[in-house]
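Record now logged underneath.
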Amino acid sequence: MTAPSRRETRALLARAAEVQDDAGAIVDILQAARAEVVEAYAIASEPQVWAAIGKMSIETVKDTVDGRARLDELPAHGICSVADVLKAGADRLTAVPGIGDGTARKTIHAAEQLKRAARDSLQFRIEFDPKNADMTRLVRALARWGAVWHAAGAHEHDAGKLAAELARELPVAGPASAGRVRRLFMRAGDKAVADDAARRVRAMVETAEAGGLPRAAREARAVRTPGDRQAWRDFEQRSADYYGLLSQVVGLGGDVAASEGFLPADIVERVGAQQLDTSRLNDSLRLRGYQSFGARFALVQRRVVLGDEMGLGKTVQAIAAMAHLAARGATHFLVVCPASVLINWSREITRHSTIPVVSLHGNGRARAVARWRNAGGVGVVTFGSLGALGLPPPRPALLVVDEAHYVKNPNAKRSQAVNRVAAESERVLFLTGTPMENRIDEFRALIEHLRPDVAAGMGPEHAAISVEAFRRAAAPVYLRRNQPDVLTELPELVQVDEWEEFGAEDGAAYREAVREGNFMAMRRAAFAVRRPHDSAKLTRLLELTREAMANGRKVVVFSYFRDVLETTGAALGADARGPITGSTPVADRQRIVDEFSASRKPAALVCQIEAAGVGVNIQAASVVILCEPQVKPSIEAQAIARAHRMGQVRTVQVHRLLIADSVDERMIELLGSKAQLFDAYVRHSTIAQAAPGAVDISEVQLARMIVAQEQQRLAGTPEPPRRLVATTPATEQARRP
């Protein structure tokens, strides 16, 4: 090979110097952006730290100081909390009888320790307040950090090493570009050393340029910190990404055991040892710690149910698991889901990963299936279409079943179709944010698809013993986390019961429904009016909506009944969007939500509660109005979680419209205790209805009890309900188109 000319060597060394500058710039820019976030966070979090220690009583200090210290007099002098101790200082403390200099020093030292502990465990929230200068500074710093990390984060480690190596090699390689005369006077050994160094420099430069390091440096240098309004607007639209950026730099607190689903130590250890390859994920996805744990749990345990509460990002955890397997050579994946979320799955996979997506649904399905078989990627198919695909082969590296509670009935055709594919899949991940609504048998039916051996070892006796016993039995296959445990940044949820009284027209409609024993007509009688002001519920709904919109908030209105939605939509007029009902085509459903979310003008989205309770994210709305109580407590919880979820930055207000002395009040009385038992079991990664006494009242039982109670209350004598069977929730659902 011909030796490079002097001119070529000089050009090489000039390029190397530029690459060295680029590598150093990447390190410096990233370090500066990270330091800016750390400093801004320290300032913005300080008020929240003081608020936390302001809630710690003086008893906390007494427990930390020498037990002989006499601090009982402090509250009488206005020093009641840890914060008060630090604000008072030594001078004020020693003015309290019985407290000398030594006790004052110990007390302040204890308070400072407690403040440090409070800072370390702080569950920090970015308060959505553009007028707060400290929060604004943090949001802008995070926006800059995100931009420079996107530009150059992948090169940070290599850039520092490269800059150091070039700094060492360039002086040694310099003589390789010397002129002919100078080289005549150089020793042969020195020439060889310089030429070897030049070759090493060339290899480093070529590797850096091929890897895109100079381009990354240019993009990082070009990043500008956005203005206040732009940063806040971006935060409002992508708050979950901002918290992901913040968690890269500082700890965000939270309950570690809860984020790990209270799993046994041996499983946690195995999951912790599992590395997660994120090379096939796009920069748009910044996994939270609990999300990474969920993806690794699915990889380690292989055939599992991820039962995270709604709003915690089960979809991205599944995508992360698929991306890991794809990075390790896997080619074929399959997602089975309801038709209502098929488009959303395709969008999310494309947005967050580099794995190709093929929709195996609708026109051209046969060609799509052939393309997926040959080229691989993620095939997305509905429950209804799965049986017609003739799968497998190919054998999916991971089968993901969304809304997996749809296959809890082993005799249903869709359950049998899922079971056939699951049996041939290397790994299976069931996703459901809906805890099982019935007895343990239905949960065992789900587990039968995954681990028959685990299902065989689970029985009612585990639930009868304790929540912990059931959790241990389910641990190999079931992981569940709840919002308050892992989403420390979630804004407050304010729930208000709006009690009203019937007027003449809606009251007459209600009494007629009671006389007929028509449970479903009783539930929607409050909206059976000709004019909005004749309905107490509708009048209040319009008041709440107008007030919310006047304050720049978007509203989502939920009802079980289509005719209630029609009445509500007509009353709201131009402010209404939708409705979204069970018959709304999937594409139209997503378009309506997208337009509602993107609109800068406040509006009200009108939704059927069961149709919009699956796969619809409506965090653009921060006011939720429920037109009537639901038969199952979990249905309301799911509807609320569509707005109060990861990405929400505003306090969520929930208003339940209720009529006193009516079916509404009876339903709340009967279902309230069940909801409490349901929650107690669900929060510990178990099945709500597994415990004795926590069995949901059936729809027919509920209807019969309430109709009889209301007939007795209004007529004064008990009367068996008429036409009851034709008007229970189940049969009403069957009659709806």
Q: What stands out?
A: Residues 146 and 388 are 44 Å apart (CA to CA). The chain is about 55% helix and 10% strand. The chain has three domains: 1-253, 255-485, 491-661+698-735. Residues 6-54 form the longest helix (49 residues).
